[in-house]
Amino acid sequence: MKSRDVRRTIIGIVVGLVTWALIILLSPQGFIGAMQEITSIEQAVITMTLNENGTLDVVEEITYRFKKPFRGVLREIPADDIGSRYTFPEITSDDMRIYQVENLGTDRHMNVRVWLVPYQSAAVQPVEGRDRVTVTFSYQVFGAVQAGVDVAQLFRKVWGEDTESWVGEIHANVNFPPGMDLVDFYTHPPVEVERNDNSLSFSINNHPPKTFVEFRAVLSLPSVAGMDSSNVRWGSFTKEEIDGIEQTTSTMVFLGKWVFPPVLLLSVIFLPVLIFKRFGKEYEIYYQAEYERDPPTEDPPDLVNCIVKNLTSWTDNDGIGAAMMNLYRLGYIDFKVDPKNDRVTSIIIMEKEPAELAQTEATLLAFMKKQSTSNVFDFAEIKKAVSKSQSKAKAYSAAFRSYKSLVQTTASKRQLLEGKGNGLAKLVSFLLLTGSLLLIFLFYPQPEVSSLLPFAMVYAGGVWVAAMAIMFQRRDVFGRWTKEGREYYLKWSNFRQFMSDYSLLNEHPPSSVVLWEKYLVYATALGIADQVRKHLNKMMPKDAWEKQGGHRYMYTPAALYAASSFSSVSASASSHSSSSSGGGAGRAGGGGGGGRTGGF
Question: For 235, how many CA atoms within 13 A lie in the half-sphere containing its CB?
Answer without folding.
Answer: 27
